[in-house]
Amino acid sequence: MRRNSRKFASHQYDRPMKLLSESALITSAIVANNRMNRERNASGVNSYEQEFKFKPEAWLAAYIQQYGHVKWLDICCGQGKALIQAAGQLAKNQLQDKAALSGMDLIDGFWSVPDGVNCLSFAIQSAVSWEPATPYDLITCVHGLHYMGDKLHVLSKIFAAISENGVFYGNFDVNSVIITGAGKDHLKKIFRQNDIQYNARTKVLYCKGPRAVTFGREYVGADDQAGPNYTGQEAVTSYYN
Question: Which of 37, 58, 71, 195 lies at 20 to 30 Å from 94 by C-alpha?
């Protein structure tokens, strides 16, 4: 037990004495300095393909062929390199008029959108305060959830924002969520009940089609001093009652 934590008699877990609010977490050095997704490619080495086992460029083209149009939202997109690469491929194949790609990140470090690409936009945005205005056919979040406070709130919004034929892929560690009085299998059970796939080995969440998922828990704060998670990088643990 860390020196700055104490035991709550009726709780299953120790809780740090000081938990950060959402506004304070945004300014945390752990969150502001994380570079987990800054220069990740769409496919190939150090890529979304490696994380989720599909090539975004090919997936987008196949979706357009089947449904006529595609919308991709990349949450915590970093510099937006993967989006730019995918958008460039769509433009090259004369498909960008059938696509709308968007990325959001807390930090304004986006690469410039190349000339000739008009299907891509970026926004400086917190996923916790984000309010989806439209369904998305592809939603991705590569290692971004590790640095969020109210992770369950964000997941609820993501699941609801998936289009009827759309999918979500995201990295998620159930060990980063501590719920008073609930064991580590609690979230896995909720995922199973809602037909959401969670791979405990790869730490990847997958959902096809929209879901109305209510976790029914009160968010009380986040610990940015929790230490490294399974990636070996410093991460944030979220606490709920």
Answer: 37
Which stretches of the chain score pLDDT less than 50? 1-12
Phi, psi for residue 6 in degrees, rounded to 5: -140, 160
d(C-alpha 76, C-alpha 65), whole Å: 27
Which CA distances in Å does 238 have to 59, 175, 241? Answer: 33, 9, 11
What pLDDT sits at residue 34? Answer: 58
Domain 21-240 is in which class?
A: alpha beta
Q: How do the domains of the chain map onto residue ranges?
A: 21-240
179 DSSP β-pair partners: 240
pLDDT tens digit sequence for 199-217? 999 999 999 999 999 999 9
Q: What are phi and psi for residue 153, nearest 5 degrees?
A: -65, -45
| The Cα angle at residue 214 between residues 235 and 32, in degrees rounded to 5 | 20
pLDDT of residue 36: 59
